[in-house]
Amino acid sequence: MDKVFIEGLEIEALIGIYDWERRIRQALVFDLEMAFDNRVPAASDDIADTLDYKAVSKRLIEYVGASDFGLVETLAERCAAIVLDEFDVAHVRLKLSKPGAVRGAKAVGVVVERSRVVAG
Ligand SMILES: Nc1nc2c(c(=O)[nH]1)N=C([C@H](O)[C@@H](O)CO)CN2
């Protein structure tokens, strides 16, 4: 299956389980791979036929910027659900990195892979 991807999308959010983390905003980095048949927009050359990575990015910027969770797991799950529920995406792989959260590590975080539940 083809993919549309977003790499290194940096968004500041209120996130973390420690007291000091409740008082600041921290930079998070999102990498997404979204299953999409790119043959259709390739044939039409029409943005309306694409999975518009700018539209997905804007939605995540809006959501994450206003979010307030303790765990990166919770935020990653909600973001994956937004992609599946609001865009024409059947499968998403989402990596959420929290740079600088652990001394000595470039980044820590989670990777989730979720598919849209098919009714019936
Ligand atoms: N699996 C997780 N481990 C940890 C998380 C998390 O969200 N998921 N969060 C923290 C703290 O908030 C940390 O980021 C502060 O440095 C610790 N472990």
Automatic annotation (TrEMBL):
Organism phylogeny: Bacteria, Pseudomonadati, Pseudomonadota, Gammaproteobacteria, Lysobacterales
InterPro entries membership: Dihydroneopterin_aldolase, FolB_dom, GTP-CH-I_C/QueF
Organism of origin: Luteimonas aestuarii
EC numbers, comma separated: 4.1.2.25
Source superkingdom: Bacteria
Function recorded in the entry: Catalyzes the conversion of 7,8-dihydroneopterin to 6-hydroxymethyl-7,8-dihydropterin.
SUPFAM superfamilies associated with the record: Tetrahydrobiopterin biosynthesis enzymes-like
Family as reported in the entry's similarity comment: Belongs to the DHNA family.
PANTHER family per the UniProt record, alphabetical: DIHYDRONEOPTERIN ALDOLASE 1-RELATED
GO BP annotations listed: folic acid biosynthetic process; tetrahydrofolate biosynthetic process
Domain Dihydroneopterin aldolase/epimerase: 4-114
Record pathway: Cofactor biosynthesis; tetrahydrofolate biosynthesis; 2-amino-4-hydroxy-6-hydroxymethyl-7,8-dihydropteridine diphosphate from 7,8-dihydroneopterin triphosphate: step 3/4
Statement: the UniProt record of this protein carries the keyword Lyase: yes
Molecular function GO terms recorded: dihydroneopterin aldolase activity; isomerase activity
Cellular component GO terms, alphabetical: cytoplasm
Record-given protein name: 7,8-dihydroneopterin aldolase
Transmembrane feature ranges: none
Assigned keywords, A-Z: Folate biosynthesis, Isomerase, Lyase
Pfam family, one: FolB
Catalytic function, reaction form: 7,8-dihydroneopterin = 6-hydroxymethyl-7,8-dihydropterin + glycolaldehyde; 7,8-dihydroneopterin = 7,8-dihydromonapterin
The keyword Endoplasmic reticulum is annotated on this UniProt entry: no
